[in-house]
Structure formats: structure tokens, C-alpha cells
Amino acid sequence: MDVIVIGGGIAGIATAYQLHAAGHRVCVVERHATVAQGATYGQGGALLPSPLDVWFGPTFMASSRSKQSGMVVKTGFDSAARDFIKQLATLRNSETFAAQYAHLQPLVATSRRVLAEIESRLELDFEQRRGMLHVFRQPRELEEAQPAIDLLKGCGVPYKLLTPEECIAVEPSVPDHSDFAGGVLLPDERTANCPLFTKQLKQVLEDDGVQFRMHRAVASLRLDGARAAVELADPNDAKRRSADVELITADAIVVAAGTGTPGLIGGIESASSLFALRVHTLTAPVAYEERAPHLTVVDSIKRITMTRINQRLRVGGAGVFQSASKADKPLDATLSRRALDLLGQGTHDWIPGAARVSAARAWEGLRLVTADGLPIVGATRHPRLFVNAAHGPAGWGLACGSAKVIADLVSGVTPDISASALAALSVERF
Ligand SMILES: Cc1cc2nc3c(=O)[nH]c(=O)nc-3n(C[C@H](O)[C@H](O)[C@H](O)COP(=O)(O)OP(=O)(O)OC[C@H]3O[C@@H](n4cnc5c(N)ncnc54)[C@H](O)[C@@H]3O)c2cc1C
User: Fold this and answer.
1) pLDDT over 90 for what percent of the chain?
2) How many domains does one find in the chain?
3) Is the CB of 256 under 6 A from ligand 1?
């Protein structure tokens, strides 16, 4: 079949890879001049989400104060944004959390398998690093995280509960003078460079004959004929003068357009079910080699991830919840400062002296998140339209497993995840 994939982030490129592997002819459309320019560019590095990493659950935003939660909430009177946060708060209940994570778990397992297959087939070096240490400040926080820790066991994720002394022994960059409650070591969980992987995969696909239409924006989808079609326009031409519009057709379309997805697929009725969350990274040179971590250190409650990538440290987190109308406007300088201060403080608290924060490059990006914490993966009501998007904070590895699910569905093959998990991930839930 001929398949058009919209979006050149990790979700789009991974989908193109699986569709091509399944024998389809694929064309990827991306509005930027190159791939990995959206949320994929800024990722913090964590490859697959464990129950401790997902952006919902018992400890997520348990406090409304940004210094405690690691999030800046500025929803004002926007009722959709407030409802969104209320819905996420219901997932703090341990049973609701476990039930929701159970829908994600099959996708995590598929993603792990798919990534292993790609790695063994292509032998790519994309700065993979093994070992993550989640650290907790207060004994109460460790207690609150217990339902997530219990799920690690249930999901077969190897882990070790560590005292503060044991944390310092496995990761000497954690300061021995600080007073904290302890940590959880995930020895097999990995971090890696998502934009680098995305670019490498794109190169493999291009060499294999997959088409790339870069610097072309999809203005709309046409799904009424025997074949599906997309209208391509110059991304800088907001007025879409007709001379600039080009129509390309295919048997199926996969929308993997990150925050551009809802506008293209339409039909999402509830304004509070999807949200473009602004997240930040700081990338700083290593200051002192002897203080740089060799494990990835995660401030578990504040969801701040500190990853070493060769001679750099990538610190990611500091989400800013604002009303939807502010998502496509530049962030107010005071809020931006507050968010970056959270990252700077996390670095100072857990790996002091490791990074030259004064020389750090700051980046912020929007990622699409859902109020139930699950991505949107699968078929839609229209038989030619499929979606791989809204992975929120966990799109790096998850998008790769989702890509396999999509390729199976497009090919008419039953995916390797249960029908109930597929239903939970479907866009129809909104
Ligand atoms: C600061 C930050 C830290 C993060 N940390 C992690 C982490 O540690 N681990 C993890 O797993 N995930 C992390 N994430 C999330 C992860 O990066 C995202 O889930 C993932 O990159 C989403 O990929 P995507 O392909 O869906 O979206 P994107 O990368 O945003 O790609 C979508 C693409 O579609 C294109 N597009 C949109 N509309 C159109 C259109 N109309 N026509 C043509 N092209 C279009 C865009 O230009 C873009 O290139 C982080 C995200 C951020 C922002």
C-alpha cells in the first residue's frame, strides 16, 4: 500500500520504519527542513517509562506548589486547563493508577522488543546509557511512591530499594552531606539520544527509498474518496495561496504530528482531554569529571531527569501548565525563569558541581499530553486514517512500539497487544 506519514519526529520516523519493513511504500511529510525538530529535539533521554516515570500516578503533582511538585501551574480561569489537571489528579489513587498503567504496560513491552530488534539489526550508536537512580527527599514521598514501586515488581522491572548511603555508593555524584530519604535503582533502564536516533533512522529509510517531503506542511486531510489525500502547503504561507497547494494521495494516512495532531484529525470534542504542555531542558557541559554522574539521576517527585550524554548533561522537566490559548505564544519571561530555576535547583541538589549550569543551553518545547496519561495510538473511525501521537513525557521509546502497532493495523495484522489495551489507547475514547 501507499502510506503517507505526517510528522518527522520520533513517532513519524519510527512509524515510517515499521511500515517500510512491512513492505509498504512510504512518504513522510514534515514542515521543518529536517527531522527531530519538535518535542523530539528536547527529550530528556529516558528511553521507556517505568511506573515511576509516567506523568501521572500517586506522586505526580501531589502539591500545588511548584517548588515541591516541579511543575509551574498557571491555568488562570481557563476551565478546560483546570479540568485537565483535575482528571490527572484522579490517577493519584493507587488502584486507578495501577489500572491505568496496566493499559500502558503492553505498549512498553512491545516498545522494548521493537527497540531491541532495531538495535540488533542496524547496530546504531545513539549514546545509549544503562542505569537510572530515582531519588526521594522525604520519607513521606517514598511512602507515597510505594504503589508505583509495587508495580515495578508486578511488571517485572528489575529494581533495588536503596538507603541514602547505598545511593551515594552506587552514584558518588549524589552529595553525601545532604539529608534525603533514599532511592530506587533501576539497573536495566536506559537513556539515549532520541534526536540522534531519529536522524539515523531517517538516513536508513532514505537510503532504502522512503520518500521525504521536507519543508512542506499538511494543511488538511481529504478522506472522502476511494484513496485518502493530504493537501501540502508552504509552511510559511499561512494564507495558503492556491498556487502553493499540492495534493498527494495514498491508501492510508498516519498522523504523527505531535501538537499538530488534533488540528489535523479533528473530532476531539472535549477541550479538557488533550493539552500542549510546555517542558524545558538545560544542556550543560560537564564541569568536573569526578562529579559527573554515570547513572541517570531522577528527582522522582519533581520529575527532573539528569542524564549524562558524553561530555554534556541534559536536565529535563519543569512542565508549565497554561491555558491552551497561550500554548503557541512565547512563554512569559518570569515563568520561563521559574521553570529553568527548578531545573537548576534540581541539578544543584542532586549532582552539585557536575554541570556548568551558567554555560547551559536552555530549550523549551511543547508536547501533547492527555488527561488520562495514555498516548493516542491506533485506527480511527475512518478506515484509512491512523494516529501515533500524544505520548506526553514518554514518547522516546514508546513511539517505537506504537509504530509497530500502527504498521500491523495498516497491514491488517492483529497487533501484539490486547484488544482492551488497544481500546484504551484509541482516539475514540475522547
Ligand atoms: C523537554 C522535553 C523532555 C522530554 N523528555 C523525555 C524523556 O526523557 N523520555 C521520553 O520518552 N520522552 C521525553 N519527552 C517526550 C518526547 O520527546 C515526545 O513524546 C516525543 O518526542 C514526541 O514525538 P512526536 O514525533 O510525537 O512529536 P514531535 O517530535 O513534536 O514531532 C511532530 C512533528 O510533526 C511535525 N508537524 C506537525 N504538524 C505538521 C503538519 N501540519 N505538516 C507537517 N508536519 C507537521 C512537526 O514539525 C514535528 O516535527 C520530552 C519532551 C520534551 C519537550
Assistant:
1) 83
2) 2
3) yes
